[in-house]
Amino acid sequence: METSVVEELDVLVIGGGFSGIYQLERLRSLGFSVSLYEAGADAGGVWHWNRYPGARVDTEATLYQFSDERIWREWNWSEIFPGQEELQAYFRFVTDRLDLARDIRYSTRVVAARFDDRTDTWTVESRDERTGETFRTRARYVLPLLGTGSKALVPEIPGLADFAGDHFHTSRWPAGYDMTGKRVAVIGTGASGVQVVQSIAPEVAQLTVFQRTPATALPMISRKLDAAANDELRRGYPELFRYRETTFGGLEYDVIYTPTADVSDEEFEATLEELWAKGGLQIWLGGYADMFFNAEVGHRIYAFWRKKTLARIKDPALAEKLAPETPPYPFGTKRCPLEYTYYDAFNRDNVELVDVRETPIEKVTRTGIVTADGREHEFDVIVLATGFDSFTGGLTDIDVRSTSGESFAEVFRDGARTALGRATSGFPNMLYVYGPQSPSAFCNGPTCAELEGEWVVNCLVHLRDNGLTRIEATPEAEKEWHDHLEALASATTFPLANSWYMNANVPGKKRELLAYPGGLPTYLEKCRQSAENGYAGFALS
Ligand code: N01
Q: Where is the FAD/NAD(P)-binding domain (predicted)?
């Protein structure tokens, strides 16, 4: 770190998604000196990076937005599940409306950070992505607000680097890339893969989808919103922003807590039909909570889903691959992608499915992909819809050292550890929102950005008002939080699936549930108790 310090701050926020923007606005308004560094060249966080064809949010815009009235009074959504361009425009609107741009540095990637025990400050090294130049920032507090999708997961497939055509991850889609008439491979069938497949199928010459595990995709069912519809929604926003705090996932609907054992088969079926017709994630995060604790309930919902899905696919052999009779995992233990025409795409002559469990990918050649049956599939483009190193990848990507000189990768080698999902011992004055061991993946992003985020805001105000300069998670609180999460997780069905929720998608990582599975209200209550007890679980000095 030889470059000179260009900024001295109270707080450095890393990441320009919902959490980062919320902190910048709130802390600045409270008189802190704050800057936000964002690696992307423009506003939007994940909505800047994920501009693959068909990228679209899977929670309703009613709550996929800031609760700040200055924003929702003026902003109109064009539909209930807006697409990537509209979401990025929303972020631009927010930064303009709140005059945030003057404190944001885009194209600025934080690469390293060291803590100085004598001054209780971090020295952070960042790189300007346009010029390659590095510079230093000194900040009392650092908030790495990196979300769950900042570190792309690119599998190590032999030969990939030598492929003569184009290949890219869904979150690194080249701007304006034209797929027309191309022979395309899509590897991965999670939320990103499903959206890409249904969007490009009609325009490409040939599309081969490499599926490892079938998705349980649900109908999105968006609806257009005109000015009158936006006005109508606005009338309900204040109540919705209050209601979200009381729901499991921070959404405008809640899970059904009635035990399915008390529900007749007819009522069970009728409820599923009702939720199905509503669309979106309702059958999952608005469905029977039992599914998260009882695999048999998950399998009953799977059977319902399968019946609906089979009706869409003409070829029975293909249908069995996409929606097998034996559930590949209990319904709900993997994220349900939302779709419009994903299953219909497989009825097209130009779309093929390769089951990589049956015929694994052996290698990539200059011209295509060779599978274990010896077949070479020729392609012009390979799309890696292979997901993210979700919970800790953003943190481990930065060369941050603890007070004893360890990196995050070293500290997390036996699993992530945090107090309340908020901070890790050895990394003082570094606080997370929507990070590992917080509700994150189970919580609507903006809801947690604001409600978890407000804890951080209040905490920093408390430190300032009391002349304190340092906060650090205690190892005891981390152990307690870990044991609490493990007890909750082992009672659920989540460990039965190899999902990114379980960290099972990243080779070499400890298999553990890193999203808090106890629901948002319980989590917020635990955060509130900590704050009321003088930030219990954290050493303040
Ligand atoms: O990533 P994923 P994603 N060989 O990890 C497969 C959010 N999101 O980018 O299931 C072959 O879900 C992997 O297979 P398997 C949302 O929270 C939201 O799609 O591990 N295949 C899987 O099929 C979502 O959950 C929106 O067996 C390989 C796929 O790649 C999260 O982001 C849109 C492989 C990865 O799926 C991540 O979604 C998009 C390999 N080596 C994303 N490695 C919306 O708001 C991985 N796979 C709508």
A: 10-234
Average pLDDT (315-336) is 98
Tally of CB atoms within 10 A around 263: 16
**Rounded mean pLDDT, 263-269:** 98
Instruction: State pLDDT tens for residues 150-188.
Output: 999 999 999 999 999 999 999 999 999 999 999 999 999
CA neighbours closer than 13 Å in the CB half-sphere of residue 342: 27
Provide the domain limits for residue 473.
5-151+389-540
Beta strand residue intervals within 445-507, DSSP E: 471-473
For ligand 1, atom 1, the nearest C-alpha belongs to: 387
CA pair distance 146, 427, nearest whole angstrom: 16
Residue from 25, 44, 43, 42 nearest 34 by CA: 25
Lowest mean pLDDT among 3-7, 139-143, 165-169: 3-7
| Pocket-testing residue among 57, 357, 505, 509, ligand 1, by greatest number of atoms within 8 A of Cβ | 505
Q: How far apart are CA 388 and CA 414, in angstroms?
A: 19
Asked if residue 446 is part of any domain, the answer here is: yes
State the total domains in the chain: 1
Q: What is the pLDDT of residues 443-499, one digit of tens each?
A: 999 999 999 999 999 999 999 999 999 999 999 999 999 999 999 999 999 999 999
**Mutational test site, ligand 1, from 87, 173, 212, max ligand atoms within 8 Å of CB:** 212
- pTM of the predicted structure, to 2 decimals: 0.97
Whether 194 maps to a domain, the answer reads no
- Mean pLDDT for the stretch of residues 409-438: 97
The residue behind tokens 């077949």 is 375
Q: At residue 380, what is the residue type?
A: D
Note the pLDDT tens digit of each residue in 215-242: 999 999 999 999 999 999 999 999 999 9
Q: What residue ranges line ligand 1, CB within 6 angstroms?
A: 56-58, 149, 155, 170, 187-193, 195, 210, 212-213, 335, 338, 356, 385-388, 498, 500, 505
Say if residues 238 and 67 touch (Cβ distance below 8 Å).
no
- When the pLDDT of each residue in the chain is averaged and rounded to a whole number, the result is 97
Can you tell me the distance from the alpha carbon of 271 to that of 253, in angstroms, rounded to the nearest whole number? 14
Please report the pLDDT score of residue 2 as a whole number: 57
Q: Whose CA is nearest to atom 8 of ligand 1?
A: 191
- Residue 36 belongs to domain with CATH number: 3.50.50.60
Atom in ligand 1 nearest the alpha carbon of residue 500: 5
Query: Does residue 76 belong to any structural domain of this protein?
Result: yes
Question: In this structure, is residue 133 part of a structural domain?
Answer: yes
Angle formed by the axes of helices 295-310 and 265-278, to 10°?
A: 60
Rounded distance between C-alpha atoms, residue 297 and residue 290, angstroms: 7
Three-state DSSP at 480 gives helix
337 burial (CB, 10 Å; 0-12 / 13-18 / 19+) is buried
